[in-house]
Amino acid sequence: MFEDLTLLQLQQFWWIIISLLGGLFAFIMFVQGGQTLLGRISKGDETYKTMLINSLGRKWELGFTTLVLFGGALFAAFPLFYSTSFGGAYWVWMAILFCFIIQAVSYEYRKKPNNFLGKKVYEAFLFINGSLGVILLGVAIATFFSGSSFSVDENNFSHWHNSLRGLESLFSIFNLSLGIALFFLVRILGALYFINNIDNDTIRFRAIKSIKIDMPIFLIFFLVFLFLLFTKTGFAYDENLSIYVQKYKYLINFLEMPFVLGMFITGILMVIVAVFLTIHFKKTCCIKTGGLGVVLTVKALFLNVGLNNTSYYPSTYDLQSSLTIINSSGSHYTLTVMSYTALMVPFVLGYIFYVWYQMDKVKITKEEIEDPHAHNY
Amino acid sequence: MEEHLVDWSRAQFALTAIYHWLFVPLTLGLGFIIAIMETIYVKTGDEFWKKTTKFWMTLFAINFAIGVATGIIMEFEFGTNWANYSWFVGDIFGAPLAVEGILAFFMESTFFAVMFFGWDKVSKGFHLLSTWLVAIGSNLSALWILVANGWMQYPVGMKFNPDTVRNEMDNFWDVLFSPVAISKFLHTITSGYVVASLFVVGISAWYLLKRREIEFAKKSIIVAASFGLITSIFITITGDESAHQVALKQPVKLAAMEGLYEGRTEAGIVAIGVLNPKKTLTNDEEPFLFEIEAPYALSLLGYHDINAFVPGLKDLVYGNEKYNIESAQSKMDKGKIAINALKEYKKAKKINDIENIRKYQEILEKNMKYFGYGHLKKPEDIIPPIPLTFYTFHLMVALGSWFLVLFALLLFFTLKREILNHKWLLISTVTSIPLGYIASEAGWIVAEVGRQPWAIQDLMPVGIALTDISTSNVKTTFFMFLFLFTALLIAEIKIMIGQIKIGPEGGH
């Protein structure tokens, strides 16, 4: 089946999968968003904080796993990106990894007796993961549009040409605007998740209040990002795979791929609708609408930067070193093998949803958290 | 590349791998031990087994969290520190990692939540299934990463593409079912089962020494010692197969493991020995200051034939015509021809010189097997650090033998209801917990140090696999990892001890 596809079709198929994973990862980062809301929603009340942490603690591993799969899929499908970006933007990726390392132990260790670092340190770890980790991820993704300073030699070995090794991307308003917008977006998702997952009026009230503050800030940064994106010069390639700069490339991409534009607009509208229904009609199920909206929006952004003859990882140092889905992918055979493996994805998503449904049909309550026999974080 | 970059990059990878490997073996084995205990609970309905399962699950979770924390860096480090490697073999190596993510990690992380929080939310059967799926998921993830590692030790199922300058997979099944990968997988996961069994019997023995949780401890010992005994027997079989594969595919590693300088037929294994530090490849010093040898055993172990010739380091470096062993220098010459042919091929390709394209492609294909040797500076570079490889191998084998005896004794005396009378055995069992970790880490050192200087056997030495980055960056991250992982390890041990002191009656 997949072996009959052309290499280009497989490359496009895998970019679509990467885009979906990117979207799913952005959605699952409601865990990170929720981690930054612990103080604001609990207001120092230990029981509330425990409820919030237990609510997130049953999901954090899915986010972690999605990040690992995102990396693994990039390694296998687009290994030249893997070697160029991870090896090149060394400090950005290392900083992101450190932010995730400290998350992994914090849930389990925070309240355990004799935990060496103390409760507050583990809570600080969760905050750093939810704030710095998310902003850095947003900045790293923004470089897919804005480019980085690298070259690729004739052996396809990569070289980075800025001694800050990726930290230079933090000095760009364009990159930062996406990083900060993503930060506020995942906070909104975190609040929507709490409203859905915890059966407690005070928590729901405070979560709604939090959305009211975060939504306008998110919109400001997201609109700045969109304005800069649609007015900026992009990186395209012609039929000889020669890279050139093109004005309004990303706006043109949306216009030339109306399906992707439709996905993008639908996604944004779903987030807005989810927030509106939560605030004005006190709906508790809007994490589903908002979450799907985020998946669609982020997926559309990835599709925009990877398809329609676009360089998804442009080089500002040597234009012809820019990475495209054509010059950076795995071989036809490997992409075919991987595509068969990807057939398992619907099955995996199926059991995740089933388990999620089974575990969440009874909402978290104060009584459950205060039960001395429960396994709580 | 800067001087010392390769040392710091290797040090960082070794550091993160050693830390990660402190936690993985326990996860691999304890998952199954817990699943067995929960199965007994579901079968008998006895609340005692539920409490027992929950206690070991608490310790499992503490260990699992730090295993995940130290694991994420392992995947991304290939890109951050071994960028050239990532391109050169990413087409093959990346696939098992991605499959690992899809098939194994999601299984672990999804059902982990049910295992810990689902006691009153899902049915008993579904909960039990989840516990088994977490154990299976963690072992499945070990399969894929060890397939990837096995491929680095014995690259198969691929072809070099001079246009992309990388190796491309042409047979996934050869990669998956490579004999090195399979024996590595079986040997590694069984070592995890032994570590987990030692962990459970060790903690249980501590309770017995303190004369508390007697019933809990005895029953835990019966389950874990049985599991440990069976897997210890299995580990000797998988160890034998691993050594056989090393003999066939990585003879230099085998010679280093045994400190064998001169090749021999009817070669014996050094059961106990002290290496002579003055011994070099070219002098006449004795290789050992002291040794006790088991005759014929190395020929038998390595080649399943007591008369087989086992090449020594000298044969492998300088060649041995009688046994048709090519010298490293000859391989280096061929490697240089391959590297040069690639350059000429590229030049010809630029000007579309069809004749030369074909000519150099043929030369390249003929010599590609030795491509990595072309980067070596001298023939002796093919030898890994001998003392480290030798001692870790022997330590692993000696400790593994002791564990087998220990499990048998524990099972015997516990079933005879005499275990409380044998204080020496209980003390030995407690002290064997760290010994299990030492044996396990030693095994990794044999596997990874023993294959130096190769990142990919014969194709890419570590010095070429690196990211082009200044050493100071890697030095800084090395110390950051050292600091953070050490702090987390201290936290883990303190929490673990705290929970053990609380015991099954109070731990959740």
Automatic annotation (TrEMBL), chain A:
- This chain belongs to the protein called Cyanide-insensitive cytochrome oxidase CioAB, subunit II
Tell me its family. Belongs to the cytochrome ubiquinol oxidase subunit 2 family.
**Keywords from the named record:** Cell membrane, Electron transport, Heme, Iron, Membrane, Metal-binding, Transmembrane, Transmembrane helix, Transport
- Annotated GO MF terms: electron transfer activity; metal ion binding; oxidoreductase activity, acting on diphenols and related substances as donors, oxygen as acceptor
A cellular component term from Gene Ontology for this protein is: cytochrome complex
Q: Where in the cell is it found?
A: Cell membrane
The way this protein sits in the membrane is described as: Multi-pass membrane protein
Keyword GTP-binding carried by entry: no
Q: What PANTHER family does UniProt report for this protein, alphabetically?
A: CYTOCHROME BD-I UBIQUINOL OXIDASE SUBUNIT 2, CYTOCHROME BD2 SUBUNIT II
Q: Name one GO biological process term.
A: aerobic electron transport chain
- InterPro entries, per database record: Cyt-d_oxidase_su2 (IPR003317)
Main subcellular location of this protein, as a coarse class: membrane
Q: Extract the Pfam families matched here.
A: Cyt_bd_oxida_II
Q: Which organism is it from?
A: Malaciobacter pacificus
Q: Does the keyword Oxidoreductase apply?
A: no
Q: Known NCBIfam families for this protein?
A: cydB
Q: Which domain of life is it from?
A: Bacteria
Automatic annotation (TrEMBL), chain B:
Q: Which residues form a coiled coil?
A: none
Name the residues that span the membrane: 18-42, 54-73, 93-119, 131-152, 185-209, 221-239, 388-412, 478-497
Respond yes or no to whether keyword Cell membrane is given for this record: yes
UniProt entry keywords in alphabetical sequence: Cell inner membrane, Cell membrane, Electron transport, Heme, Iron, Membrane, Metal-binding, Transmembrane, Transmembrane helix, Transport
Listed GO biological process terms: aerobic electron transport chain
Q: Where does this polypeptide localize?
A: Cell inner membrane
Q: Which GO terms describe its cellular component?
A: cytochrome complex; plasma membrane
Q: Name one GO molecular function term.
A: heme binding
Give the bilayer topology.
Multi-pass membrane protein
Query: Pfam family example for this protein?
Result: Cyt_bd_oxida_I
Q: Which family does this protein fall into?
A: Belongs to the cytochrome ubiquinol oxidase subunit 1 family.
Protein name listed in UniProt:
Cyanide-insensitive cytochrome oxidase CioAB, subunit I
Q: Which organism is it from?
A: Malaciobacter pacificus
| Gene giving rise to this polypeptide | cioA
